[in-house]
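One such given next:
>
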Amino acid sequence: AAKHDPKAVPTFVPLDMFVVNLADKEAERYAQVGMTLEIGDAKLGDQIKAYMPAIRHAVLMVLADKTAAQLIDREGKVKLAREVQRETSRVLGDKDGKGGWQIAWRIAPR
């Protein structure tokens, strides 16, 4: 596996805003979620852009399984980031999941 170079400037790939119905049973809720993928290799950024429809689908499936309570605190956001990283890596055929995510959240009742 390639070593991470701490001096390398990361590449940021923003994803369009996600709007998804959440899995809450007691009320209809949706989440508006913005994400930016932070990657260490600009070439991977091009690959991410090429696979964007599949990546967006994978992220939407992860989000749709969540409830508002699961996303409201830091622990839930960290867990979601790991799940998004894992699913994005699967789409790209990469099993070691090297990306990092910055996530902006807004959860509101519909």
